[in-house]
Amino acid sequence: MTNPPSSKKAQARAANKNSSDSKADYTCNSEPPADDPMELFRKAVGEVKPVPNDRVGDTRTPPPPRPRQFELDEKAVMHDAMSDDRDPDELDTGEHLNWAREGVQKRVMRKLRNGYYSIQAELDLHGMTVNQARTAMQMFIAEVTALHGSCCVRIIHGKGRKSATDAPILKPFTSSYLRQRRDVLAYCSAKSSHGGTGAVYVLLRAGRVVD
Question: Where does 69-204 sit in CATH, by number?
Answer without folding.
Answer: 3.30.1370.110
